[in-house]
Amino acid sequence: MTVNGSMFVKVPSRSQADVVVVGGGLSGSLAAVLLGRAGYRVAFVDRHAVCPAQFRVEKIAGVQVELLRRMGLLDCLAAAGAPFVKVVNARRGRVLDETFGQHYGILYDDMVRVVREQLPPAVRFLVDRVVQIETGPDHQQVTLAGGEVISARLVVLATGMGDLLRQDLGISRRVIFEKHSTTFGFSISPAPGQAFGFPSLTYYGEQQADAIDYLTLFPVGDVMRANLFTYRDYRDPWLQDMRRDPKSTLLATLPGLGRFLGDFQVVTPVQYWIMDLCVAGDYERDGVVLIGDVFQTSCPAAGTGVSRLLTDVERLCMVHLPRWLASPGMGREKVSEFYQDPAKQAADRSALRAAHYRRGVTVDPGMGWTLRRQHAFIRRRLLGRVKDLQRALPAPSAGQAEA
C-alpha cells in the first residue's frame, strides 16, 4: 500500500506455539482444553467464535461417560445436559426390554460451547481460517487468512469432514461406502395436558423393507429429541416425505409407534445428514496428526463416532503428545505412534465393524442376516421377560438370605 507517496509492504505478524489445533468442533475443542490444562502453549483456530447449530451427536452414553470422566470434562457436560437412566426398547408395538445406564441428552453446539468454556489461559483462541500449513520434521508453519503466521512443533488437524487442508497436505481419503446411511433429527412434544410414558425410548424398524434401524427419543431441555437412523437410498421419495411431514410418515412406516407416543407434535424443523464411510490414506506425515472424522467417519446408528473421537483425543493428548514434546523433532516416526496405538486401532476397527453390522442386520435380505435379525429380537424379548419376572419376585427375608 502507499502512504504519503511511499510504498509499504504489510509484514505478517508471527507467533509461537507448542501445538496448533485446527478446527473448533468437538474433537478440536477437547484437544485444546486438555493440552492447555497440561500447560502447553496452544493456538486454537476456528472460523466461528460460537459453534453454529448443526445436526451431529446429541447424546452422551456408555463408554463415552467414562472417557469424559477421565478427561475431567464429564461434570460440566452433565450439568448442561438432560440426564436419564432408563431406556424402553420396543418393536412392532411391544416392549422388548428395558436397559439402564447413565445418559445425557445435549445438542452438539451446546456440547462444544461447554467444552470451549473450559479453555485455560494457555490457549489462544483465534477466530480465523487456516489457508496454508507447511510441515517439516522439526517445526510447522500455519498461515491464517488474517495474515498471522504461527510456528509450532505440531499441528492437530480436527477439521471433521472438511477436505481442503487435508488435500493441500497430500492426505488422501478413501470412500468405503458412499451414502452409507441417512440420519434425521427433530424434536417432539406430547399433546397439551399429556406426557410421554417413558424417560427414553428406542423403537426399532418393523420391516426389513423399511430400511429403518431405529428411532431413539430422549430428553433435551424441555422437549423430547428424536434421532431416526435409516439406510434408505438417498433418492428415495420417502426421505422428502420425512422432511415435509415427519409425523404422518413415521406413523405410517412404524404403525406400532403410536402406542408409545399417543398424540404428539413435531416442534422443530427436520434436519438430516447423509454419511459416507471414509478413511484417510497417506496420513503419516511430519508434524501433523489427524483426529476424529478427518481420519475416519462412523455410522451414526452404531453410536461409535463419539467414542472414537474421545479415544483419539485421550490417546493423543494424554499419552503420546507429552512424550513427543519432551524430545526434539516431530517427524513422521513420532506421529506414526499415534496411528499405531492399540486403543485407537481397536476403536477404529470396532466402529467399522459396527457400521457394516448395523446396515446388514437392518436391510440385507440374505438368510444369514435375516436369522441374525430374528434371533436378536427374540433373545431380547425373552431376556426382558426374565428380568421382569425377577423384579416381580418378592425380596428374600433375612432368614432366607442367610440360608
Description:
The structure is a single chain. The chain has 403 residues and is of the alpha/beta class. The protein has a domain at 14-82 and 108-176 and 277-359: FAD/NAD(P)-binding domain. 36% of the residues lie in helices and 31% in strands. It is built from 13 helices and 18 strands. The strands form 3 sheets. Strands 5, 6, 7, 12, 13, 14, 15, 16 and 17 form a 9-stranded mixed sheet that branches. Strands 3, 4, 8, 9, 10, 11 and 18 form a 7-stranded mixed sheet that branches. Helix 6 packs across helix 7 (246-253) and helix 9 packs antiparallel against helix 11. The radius of gyration is 24 Å and the shape is elongated. InterPro entries: FAD-bd, FAD/NAD-bd_sf, UbiH/COQ6_monooxygenase. This is FAD-dependent monooxygenase.
What is this structure's SSE topology?
Blueprint (H helix, E strand, L loop, with lengths): L1 E2 L2 E2 L6 E9 L3 H12 L4 E5 L12 E3 L1 H9 L2 H7 L1 E10 L2 E12 L2 H9 L6 E5 L2 E5 L5 E5 L4 E9 L6 H5 L3 E19 L10 E4 L7 E9 L2 E8 L6 H8 L1 H8 L4 H4 L2 E3 L4 E11 L6 E3 L14 H21 L6 H8 L2 H22 L3 H26 L5 H5 L1
Parallel strand pairs: 3-4, 3-11, 4-8, 6-13, 11-18
Antiparallel strand pairs: 1-2, 5-7, 6-7, 9-10, 10-11, 12-15, 12-16, 12-17, 13-14, 14-15
